[in-house]
Amino acid sequence: MTDVESATGDESPADRDASAVGLTGYGTYVPDEVIAGEEIAARSGIPEAVVVEKMGVREKRVCPPDADHVTDMCVKAAEDALADADVAPEDVDTVLYHGSEFKDFVVWSAAANVAERLGAENAFAVESYALCAGAPLAIRQAKSQLLADAPETALLVAASREEDLVDYGNGDSSFMFNFGSGACAMVLERNPDADRTRATVRESAAVTDGSFSEDVVMPAGGSRNPPSQATVEAGLHALDVPDPEGMKERLADVSLPNFETVADESLARSGYDRADLDFAALTHMKRSFHDYLTDRLDAEHYYLDEYGHVQSVDQVLALDEGLKRGLVDAGDVVCFLAAGTGYTWAATVLEWQG
Description:
Layout: H1 13-17, E1 21-29, E2 34-36, H2 37-44, H3 48-54, E3 59-61, H4 70-85, E4 94-97, H5 110-118, E5 124-127, H6 134-148, E6 153-160, E7 182-190, E8 199-208, H7 229-233, H8 244-269, E9 279-282, H9 287-297, E10 300-301, H10 314-324, E11 333-340, E12 344-352
Parallel strand pairs: 4-5, 4-6, 9-10, 9-11
Antiparallel strand pairs: 1-7, 1-8, 2-3, 6-7, 8-12, 11-12
Helix pairs in contact: 2-3, 4-5
């Protein structure tokens, strides 16, 4: 396991604000097509009550085969985020894609495509992958770059349609039956005006346990097992879990402690503790674990049972729904809290300004 520098919670607010990064706008997009828990149950043979109550999927959004590709969804979310921030595309300095590696094409820059389509002609494009832990780490990466380098405005985009990779006939991969589709975008700026700041970005924490690195794989398509007619006929281009029971048993021992560790450390580095946390924007997970974790954090939250799990889009979807429902107010401490196969747990703290 690895982690980052020790907590620096004794830093004063004045010191922290001397070089601030703010979230000035965000946007989301989800496709129109909906699959309800009833249909997931019919496809998989799992009882509907298990899908809805245990897996926590009342419904989720999915993409048609010929539309809503990753870049299409990113562009739509980014247009809303830029409008929300009142930032013109040509004023963006960098576009960071942190969504699914399953994109329009393989070995290809979705970030460059999104920048071109938006008209962000002065931006350079870069990509960062942490699977479902991507959002907190992308914010951390962008903040560090904004403070250390020349860029003043960063556009973060993410999207996923990994539902395409789910085989509902494979019971070993049932924990992925919650995969849904959608996109999000965030605008981060260095030292933005107070009246344009929706949230101030504080500190982050992360931990990785690489012993899980081969527990979720698509068996074919990479250099170990290149695509061929035989791999297609064998159905090896869907996500699989080689040892589901072993993974579940090992993950049960470390997941809760690692979630709590990164949440507590990101709060401490931001000058807070768990008692100060107002809203947790969480990765979608089975309902019982979500409820248990949020009870321990003692924070407001929104459960994504009408979206399912949309990879690193989850945190912005949860924040957006929290805002709509009055669960997030000006002055609140918000934690983007995520975990992604590999396995990485990550958290980033935001101070919501309103």
